[in-house]
Amino acid sequence: MATAPKVDTETLSTFADASVAESFIAKAKGLRDLLRAEAPLGEKLRSPTPTVDKALNENGLLTMLLPKRLGGGGLSFTDFSRVQMEIAKGDPSISWVLQIVNGTSWVTSLSSDAIQDTIFGNGPAKVCGAYNPPGKAKKVDGGWIVNGAWPYTSGSRQSDWAQSGVVLEGYEGPVVPGINMVYIPFSELEIVDSWYVTGMQGTGSDTSVAKDVFVPEHMMVMMDKPYGYVEPGKRHVGAPSDRVPVVPVVRATGIAQLIGAAEAMLELIEADKNKPIVTTMYAKRADSGVFNHDIGRVASQLNSARTLLFSVIGALDDVAVTGREFPFPERAQQKAMCGQVVELVHSAIESIMFIAGSSAFSLDKPISRFWRDVHVGLRHIQNVPALGYEIYGRDRLGTQNIAPPGAY
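Given the sequence above, the corresponding structure tokens read:
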């Protein structure tokens, strides 16, 4: 087992400074034209193209959220979200892959020293995965035999390791309700071509399959010692990102890219302001009071969504930097606030497509792909507004909640 090199923890206990963040944002903006040019092929391949895959790796965009101690970018959650927004303006499917790989790799950095040594001992590695429906892990000498099939494994072709959810069989130790996670090299998994959906086609979210794969004992995160558990004498700990619970971060940073994609849609119709409005006397859209009103309203909705989301993500950065308590009532409020962001984005993209007109739905129009991709992204289970509102309402009223606290 490789061991990560000793590091100066004092210099690595802060997020990356502004110059590092701005360099990543500049890279993301610089890739916009390439991502838009490659997006149609990526949609046909249903996975990032080789050209895009190369660009992501060369620019270090798949390890931005890993802490500096593991050779990652060490970005704050705010700065990571800013990068995501810019990538989404090129291709929302690629921003989705970046979110999954960066997020899952970061989650892995909250695991035991043994897991971190194995995965990151030779430098920053890339992890993605899926947890539901869970596979099964049967206890054997020295580890586990794992079987399972995990759909929606976004970024499977960009990653080195899979983080896969399992339930336990034949185990007599302490069992805590929930889904445990095992780590399996993708070289030991089969990828089944299964990702045929309306949007986000370019994410490669196919099914990863394990058939009697042996997983060493130390490569499982069990619910009795979950992510963020600090074992006695733990070496790989101390970054701000080690102090924040998983679900709020993944939820909030995942929504950021959807705002960026919606902003790109707005820019596309603003660029068409001189197009006539058929069946009217308007030679240019910009002459129409309705067009001006609708542009202003949509832009305001997206500005509000951005402001609201960054207030949520800023609070997560504050928890990370200060180490303050992050009480469950605040988490419930954040989930509801994210629901508001989702509703603002959804309303905005629907209005944009009415403004753009029926020609915008042509499959060869970039705005059509953005619209399809954002619709699929908005419907991730973490983003459903009604669930967020109910959780927040039950928290306020003190009634029994519908999800365990760790799930929000």
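The CA atoms of residues 66 and 106 lie 5 Å apart. Try to locate this feature in the token string yourself.
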